[in-house]
Write a structure and sequence with these properties.
Order of helices and strands: HHHHH
Strand content: under 5%
Number of domains: 1
Structural class: mainly alpha
Number of strands: 0
Number of helices: 5
Distance between the termini: 14 Å
Oligomer: single chain
Length: 126
C-alpha cells in the first residue's frame, strides 16, 4: 500500500514540477538564475532532467531501491523550487507571484514534504 501511495505522490509531484518548469519558461527563469543560453539552453537542460524524472517514476512503480533514491531527489527538488522562488519573491522579484504560480509552488511544497516523509519511512522500514 505504501509503495502504491508513493507512486501516486511521485506522479503528482512530477506533474507539478513539470508544470512549474513550463511556468518558468514563461518567466524566463534562465535570467533569474543567470543561466547561459537563453531559451535554447533552458530547453536543452530540461531534456535529461525530464528523462530522469520520468525514469524515476518507472523505478518507483517497480518498487526498486533506486526508485526510492529518485523519490528523495524529486522531493528535495520540490522543496528547493519552493524555497528558491520564495527567496526571490521576498527579494522583490515579480515573477511567480500570479495565483497559479503560487498555487503550483505551494502544492509542490506540500506534496514534496509528504513524499519525502513516505520515502524516508520506506527507505528505513519505519
Amino acid at each position: 500500500m505504501v509503495s502504491n501511495t508513493l507512486f501516486w505522490l511521485y506522479l503528482i509531484n512530477s506533474v507539478l514540477l513539470i508544470d512549474h518548469e513550463i511556468d518558468s519558461a514563461y518567466w524566463e527563469e534562465w535570467n533569474i538564475f543567470k543561466l547561459p543560453g537563453g531559451i535554447t539552453g533552458f530547453l536543452l537542460i530540461h531534456i535529461p532532467v525530464l528523462f530522469f524524472v520520468l525514469y524515476g517514476l518507472v523505478l518507483v512503480f517497480q518498487q526498486s531501491y533506486t526508485g526510492l533514491i529518485f523519490s528523495l531527489i524529486l522531493s528535495f527538488s520540490g522543496l528547493f523550487a519552493f524555497t528558491a522562488h520564495m527567496y526571490f519573491i521576498k527579494k522583490g522579484r515579480e515573477e511567480f507571484k500570479t495565483p497559479m504560480s503560487m498555487f503550483i509552488l505551494s502544492a509542490t511544497l506540500v506534496v514534496s514534504i509528504i513524499q519525502l516523509v513516505l520515502t524516508v519511512k520506506q527507505l528505513f522500514n519505519i
